[in-house]
Amino acid sequence: MLTGMGIPRRSQTISRALLLPAHKKSPTYQRWHVAPRNVPSNTALRYYTATPRNMIDKNTCPPLLSFTESLRGKSYLVTGGGRGIGYAITRAVAECGANVTVLDALPEPVPEFHKLASEFGVKTKFFRTDVTNPSMLESNFERSVQEMGGLHGCVTAAGIVEEHPFTDYPVEKLRRVLDVNVVGTFLTTQLAAKHFIRNSIAGSIVLIASVSAHMVTPNRKLSAYASSKAAVRMLTTAVAAELGSSGIRVNCISPGYINTDLLDNVRKIDPDSVSFMDRAPHIGRIGQPKDISAATVYLLSDAAGYSHGSEMIVDGGVLGGIFKDPRDL
Ligand SMILES: NC(=O)c1ccc[n+]([C@@H]2O[C@H](COP(=O)([O-])OP(=O)(O)OC[C@H]3O[C@@H](n4cnc5c(N)ncnc54)[C@H](O)[C@@H]3O)[C@@H](O)[C@H]2O)c1
């Protein structure tokens, strides 16, 4: 709190401020950019981030410390939630006390899925769905809304990877990657948006993109996948622009390297590549599916009420570039 800074330090700040150029004397600049000297770092952090009480609008300010609570009792839908990152998100949503439906092409989700309802006292449903099939997607989407009694948020995690050298990329494989990753994401987002608009719900949609939208992975032939994820990234911005005035929020998360079945093929073709993914992130390890779930819950929650059209990168620092000597990776 500003008042916690103590009178001497505060007057030091004010006297320093008198020597500043005009624009730096403004209360806003002072509040955000001028910290007193000799202040412990946690106090300085609070100084920078504190919002004066008279600036808090009780109608719009999110409940920061209880953001997971804002999901309780609501209903969510996760495509690709049958395993991997999508399942971790499904579990996290259930853990927040929300009902959750999974639409996935798998015949069955991971066995743990069936325990979520009793473990967290929520409703769960699994509908086998190919997100590239518009009529199947729509009918299972509607079934979910019926059985859950509504929908408040949606996560599109269904995705595939196909690796082929660019010059030999088979056109049918290219089409499949774009169909699942882009068209499937597009159609799911469209269904969710239409539902929210029809029912005047300020829903939240989270698209799963990838750091591949921004960077290449050494030795991997990911031209189709990378293009598809760049499309998801930009889809987020374009849809957010169209839907913002309706109160619907649309954001995306770009995971770095996450240890899931999706990496199994890479592991088979090139184990060195997985070893690179283990060591390249600055944080010193490959990501786990649950590394993505807290970020997703945040974006679904009321606490993210001013996040819109944004990309949250959750990558252990890999997008920052290779820090070590590449020969050591
Ligand atoms: N694992 C990573 O390193 C990584 C990194 C960045 C982004 N991602 C993205 O995260 C998402 C989840 O990936 P993951 O690593 O958990 O992979 P995964 O293969 O474990 O899970 C993907 C899920 O999508 C489902 N799916 C595939 N095609 C589908 C279709 N046509 N219709 C419905 N469901 C379909 C699969 O059955 C599977 O359950 C994907 O969009 C992926 O591109 C993954």
UniProtKB/TrEMBL annotation:
Q: What Gene Ontology molecular-function terms does this entry list?
A: oxidoreductase activity, acting on NAD(P)H, oxygen as acceptor; oxidoreductase activity, acting on the CH-OH group of donors, NAD or NADP as acceptor
Q: Which Gene3D superfamilies match?
A: NAD(P)-binding Rossmann-like Domain
**Occurrences of domain Ketoreductase (ranges):** 74-256
Query: What top-level branch of life does the organism fall under?
Result: Eukaryota
Keywords assigned: NADP, Oxidoreductase
**Pfam families associated with the record:** adh_short_C2 (PF13561)
Show the SUPFAM superfamilies listed in the entry. Answer: NAD(P)-binding Rossmann-fold domains
In Gene Ontology terms, what is a biological process of this protein? Answer: secondary metabolite biosynthetic process
Q: Which InterPro entries match?
A: KR_dom (IPR057326), NAD(P)-bd_dom_sf (IPR036291), Sc_DH/Rdtase_CS (IPR020904), SDR_fam (IPR002347)
As for family, the record states: Belongs to the short-chain dehydrogenases/reductases (SDR) family.
The protein in question is named Ketoreductase domain-containing protein
Q: Which organism is it from?
A: Aspergillus nanangensis
